[in-house]
Amino acid sequence: MNNALHLSFQAKFSKKNESGKVPIYVRLTINDVRTEFSIKCFIEPEKWIIKAGIAKGNSEDIKIVNATIIAIRTKIFQHYNRLIETDKSISAEALRNSYFGITEKSKTIKEVFEYHNSQMKTLIGKDFASGTYDRYCTSLRHTLEFIEYKYNVSDFPIKSIDHEFITEYEYFLKVVRKCAHNTAIKYLTNFKKIVRICFGNGWITKDPFYNYKFNLIEVQREILTEYEIQAIADKEFATSRLAQVRDIFLFCCFTGLAYSDVKKLSKNHVVIGIDGEKWIKINRTKTDTRSSIPILPMAQAVLHRHANNSKCIAENTLLPVYSNQKMNSYLKEIAAVCGIEKTITFHIARHSFATTITLQNDVPIESVSKMLGHKSIKTTQHYAKVLDKKVSSDMQLLKHKLINEKISLHSQTA
Questions:
Q1: pLDDT string in tens for the chain (414-residue length)
Q2: Is the entire prediction scored with pTM above 0.85?
């Protein structure tokens, strides 16, 4: 956008008054967007020079009209230059408002962010998951904390956001809030959405995120080995609480379901599949994409153990799932009791399903992706960490193939 102003005066021949005269309008065009208004002058149609945008003749009335045009042109350019000098948002509408002395209230980060979040809240269960709404609320809180920290104010005008604001915000998230790199980038991505809303509505004329690069660091995702999964399965727990959490965790290790999906799992989600066996078919809470998962024996055994659970019957669910916070807390206890030194979280079950249970056992990644409910194989690859065992197995096959080819070659030259 070059913010160049194109100004012209035009007679509206289609708007003749009772005296046969037509009104004169001034048209302002900036960045291909235009606005216009009447200059409160009228003229006979035959006395208007269209290309020049002025009236012809030497009568007193004509002189007044042309003097008015010159005065308005001068005043408009004065307001235009003032907007340029003060680095304010330049648009045809803003220039028109400046000419008429209309003060436009600048929108603020808090105002736009809160409105966005309030709309998102009403769409929970339709377009968004509750976790997504919670993350945007946290993002708003961090943004306002940064504004208070950096500028010592409680809010900030949208129009004043620039490249420096964003770089300083990233620094604040990493150094002051002590967010990990990828976490900081996710908060910046949330904030970028708010800025893009402002840009799309014309509240700002430049995108401050233009040329700002987001680089996520690839994270090595933790998984459990077959031995560790078996150790958890074989362990006898002193409390029913830990045994219950163990069961649900194992269920997800053998189905790949995320916490939000297993929590809402009901009898309606269990169907007879194309092979005549029981399958889970459920739309993921996070993306609303379909997951289709054959129920393995270990997962079926868990369902059988909790079939008569009173909490499940009352809530029409298949498994008695605690809150995510409690599940993760109890899983730390389970890891300690089982002698597993890894920090186990509920989501590790999904990672372990993708890698240890399926890919390591030669299930094609396309099938794994469908069971996980991913929209693309690329997303599945983030979960599917290739294990040394699989690499070794693949290389052994290659080694035997090369040896056989070498023997064949020798026999041909003998």
A1: 578 899 999 999 998 988 999 999 999 998 888 888 889 899 999 999 999 999 999 999 999 999 999 999 999 999 999 888 875 557 888 888 888 877 666 789 999 999 999 999 999 877 887 788 999 999 999 999 999 998 888 888 888 898 999 999 999 999 999 999 999 999 999 999 999 999 888 888 888 998 888 888 777 778 899 999 999 999 999 899 999 999 999 999 999 999 989 999 999 999 998 999 999 999 887 777 888 999 999 999 999 999 998 989 999 999 999 999 999 999 999 999 999 999 899 999 999 999 889 988 888 889 999 898 888 888 787 766 656 666 777 788 788 777 776 655 444 444
A2: no
236 and 372 co-located in one domain? yes
**Using CA atoms, how far apart are residues 302 and 185, in angstroms rounded to an integer?**
39
Strand order of the sheet with strand 270-272? Answer: 270-272, 278-283, 290-294
Same domain membership, residue 92 and residue 158: no
C-alpha closest to that of 201 among 97, 133, 115:
115
In a domain, 205, yes or no: no
- 3-state DSSP assignment of residue 119: helix
Domain boundary among 200, 234, 269: 200
* Residue 313 and residue 237 share a domain: yes
Q: 155 and 280: one domain?
A: no
Residues 179 and 315 in one domain: no
SS3 122: helix
